[in-house]
Amino acid sequence: FDELLPENIKKVNTRHQHTSCVTMSPTIENPDLTATLINDVDVEIPEDLGSWTTGEKQPNHFRDVMWGVLFYGQVVVIAAMGFAWGLPALNEHIDYNVDEDDVTNFKGIMYLCLIAGGCGIAVSAVSLTLMTMFPTFLIQFALIFSVAMSLVSGIGAAVMGNVAGAVIGILFFFIGACYACLVWRRIPFAATNLETALTAVKKNWGLNLVAYFLVLLAFAYSMIWALTFIGVYYRSADCDEGICTGTVNAGYVFLLFLAFFWSQQVIQNTTHVTVAGTVGTWWFDPLEASSCCSKGVGDSFFRATTFSFGSICLGSLLVAIIHSLRVLVQQARSEQDGILLCCVECLLGCIESIMEYFNKWAYIYVGLYGYSYCEAGKNVMTLFEERGWTTIITDDLIYNTLSLMSLVLGILTGALGLLVADVAKDWFTGIKDLGAFAFL
User: Cα-flanking dihedrals φ and ψ of residue 56, to 5°?
Assistant: First the structure.
């Protein structure tokens, strides 16, 4: 929402282009609804703010309906296959007296997923609190950390004798260092954006309930999808009496991962659209969105799951297709690596990153104004044309912080997986490379 922020920054010293930053909701007649107050912070207002065109609220009606129907269709198919094929396969090893070392104990996998999911929820709550308390420090630390990791990778490659990797690592280190020096003055501005957003979340704690509900929904879907994968694996990999000797067809793998990534993207983007709508309501009409389960939260969640759900499904499907193709390429590289497959994977990774970044902005327009996916995309392109690098740099600084917190979350969850695998080895009979599996 940094496109909305500059209009509301007060006490601007036009001679030096600095501000003692006071960011507040537009209804300044209600001082109790002040979003956040940061005294004596030297925030430089970017000179290239330019001008831009804000969106217009759209009438409430269903958009991109076909994609929503298609999404619900695949959920029904996955659930039906999971219960029809997955449950019998999951219990098959109980019905046969075979060597336990040869049988893949899928129940252990389910237990591990349950434990890791609970850990992820707890760590996510802690990370939200830390970002609220130390936004500037975390942005600075994340920026320095990303630059330092380039240097570490370059030194590591040099130690291993990889000259090309060392050169690339050192090159990215110098580029990152120059970038950090150039954008360092923007950190207070980015921190204000981050703190403003987190303040809006604190004012509307119902968003956390929505987020946790959708996380649990994603977790439940993952369990059902895992059952489906097990069932398909048993039916296509020549499994008999708990022992599998074949491999799964690549077409089945693609379709299964397409369904999984699509569903995860839809759930994630539903949260994104709900938050965007709630924060937009809080910004322009604080009385509607300043309590735990405010009207702003309820209305935004309702729109995200009804009128705008088809738009969410469409954008999510595009990312899911690219991600699924990357999985196939990675699988092919594991069997027979080559420069061509490496280039294809790199290209797909770049396209996926661009699509995810584009979707992040498009869904803000969907949440704020109720646009269809294509209309929101046009508004995003207009925003980038008018705002240029200011929007991207500010967003990148915040994204680095969120990525760092996600990295910490992943490491802690993976470490817990290793601990569980070490303590309860009897849960994971028949699984090769148990340590790597448990961490992932």
Answer: -125, 140
SS3 content of the chain, % helix, strand, coil (to 5): 75, 5, 20
Give the model confidence (pLDDT) of 33-51 as tens digits.
Answer: 333 333 334 444 444 444 4
Q: Which residues contact 42 (CB under 8 A, 6 or more apart)?
A: 18, 20, 188
Amino acid 19: pLDDT:
33
What are the distances in angstroms from CA 221 to CA 46, 78, 262, 264, 313?
44, 9, 11, 9, 16
Single-letter code of the amino acid located at 387: R
Residue 137 has pLDDT above 70, yes or no: yes
Among 55-59, 100-104, 414-418, top mean pLDDT goes to 55-59
Distance CA 188, CA 77 (A): 49
CA gyration radius, the chain: 24
Q: Check the CA dihedral 75-76-78-83 and report its sign.
A: positive
Distance CA 382, CA 53 (A): 8
Task: Compute the distance between CA of residue 138 and CA of residue 143 in angstroms, rounded to an integer.
Answer: 8
The label of the residue with tokens 């059952």 reads 227
Torsions phi, psi of 39, nearest 5?
-90, 145
3-state SS assignment for residue 372? coil
CB 277 within 8 A of CB 284: no
Both tokens of 141, joined, read 């630390």
Average pLDDT taken over every residue of the chain: 78
325/153 Cα distance (integer angstroms) = 27
Query: Directed axis angle between helix 339-369 and helix 373-387, to 10°?
Result: 100
CA 400 from chain centre, in angstroms, equals 12
